[in-house]
Amino acid sequence: MNKRNRKLREKISNAFELPQDIIMDVAKVTIIGTNQVTIENHKGIIEYGENQIRINIGSGILILDGKHLAIKAILQEEITIMGEISGISF
Fold it and tell me: In Å, what is the CA distance from 12 to each residue of 15, 35, 40, 81?
């Protein structure tokens, strides 16, 4: 997305009080305790393992570290991961 397009989307989001994750097509990460993470607007799984999962979020890569990590649910634009999450990095 070019700079001009991004600024226009930001103005629309602010003017209509719409969530930026929808208008700007950015990832929304929801963390529930240390056992569950939901990522909306993801662009796909890069790496999947029991101790690390890497997910493309468009603006970069989200890395989840932990133990017994597993995908609980996966939809076209949303993914929920369960397990003993010890770290999240971008």
Answer: 5, 35, 21, 32
Question: Is the pLDDT at 5 greater than 90, yes or no?
Answer: no
| Beta-strand pair 78-89/52-56 | unpaired
Helix (H) or strand (E) run with residue 84 in it:
strand 78-89
Tokens at residue 74, please? 């996966």
Single pTM value for the model: 0.76
Q: State the CATH class of domain 26-89.
A: mainly beta
d(CA 52, CA 57): 16
CA distance 21 to 1: 14
| Ranges of each domain in the chain | 26-89
